[in-house]
Structures are given as C-alpha cells and as structure tokens.
Amino acid sequence: MSDLLERLRGRGWRMTAQRRVVAEVLDGDHVHLTADEVHARAAQRLPEISRATVYNTLGEMVSLGEVIEVATDHRAKRYDPNAHHPHQHLVCANCGAVRDVRPAGDPLKDLPADERFGYTVSDVEITYRGLCPDCASA
Ligand SMILES: [Zn+2]
Ligand SMILES: [Zn+2]
C-alpha cells in the first residue's frame, strides 16, 4: 500500500482539508489518475474544492518528488503516487487500466553503449500495451 499522506507529512507539508482529500484520492497501489479524475473524486468528498486547488496541489506534490507525472498514452497526463520505486507501465489498449510493472532486466542499464550516441542517459519510460483480462474476455 502506498503511504502518500505519511510521506507528505514527513516532508513538512502543511496538511489542509483540501490537500488531504487530494492526497487521499491519489493514495494507493496502481493509481494513475488524470487531474480531472482527481478533481471529480475529491469533489465527491469535498464539494467546494476547485479545479485550480486540485491542479496546484498536484503540482506541489510533484515538486516535492512524492508524486510523478506519467504519460502512458495519448490521453491526458496522469499522476502516480508510486514515486520511489522505479517501475514501468502496462496499459490496457481498450479501457486504459494501468498497472505498475517491473521488467526483469534494468531497462536503463540494458541500453548498449553504441545505442547511447554519447548521451548521459538518466531515465527511461517504457509502456507495455495489451488487453487487460476483463477486456480480453469481453
Ligand atoms: Zn481493459
Ligand atoms: Zn505507475
């Protein structure tokens, strides 16, 4: 289980009611929500929360390094609380469900020297695509 709230508290982040709701909505495993999805879920708990507050709060979490932004497909950017365990994404091409996955090798180290073109390579982002079990059986 993710521990986003505890991590944010540990960073000395001032926890208001609105920030708490955003953090609670985003907490958990395999969570990858767009800002609009976070806003819709947060508004169910705190109807007065504005879209601007949600966007600002997400931006602060990203700045703190406790949430990462991921682009798994051509849809809107998603927010991911799994910020401290390097992982890649497995995406259902039909419904968009996203899983955190870890390839057996190290994709950063596995890029051969002659494929680096002199770059200092610091990060890698891989998206595996397919059909989730529900979509495959539908
Ligand atoms: Zn699916
Ligand atoms: Zn993820």
From TrEMBL:
CDD domains the UniProt entry points to: Fur_like
Cofactor stoichiometry and binding remark: Binds 1 zinc ion per subunit.
Any Pfam family: FUR
Any one GO MF annotation of this record: DNA binding
Alphabetized UniProt keyword annotations: DNA-binding, Metal-binding, Repressor, Transcription, Transcription regulation, Zinc
Signal peptide start and end residues: none
Residue numbers binding Zn(2+): C92, C95, C132, C135
Coiled-coil regions listed: none
Entry cofactors: Zn(2+)
Family the entry assigns: Belongs to the Fur family.
Official protein name in the record: Fur family transcriptional regulator
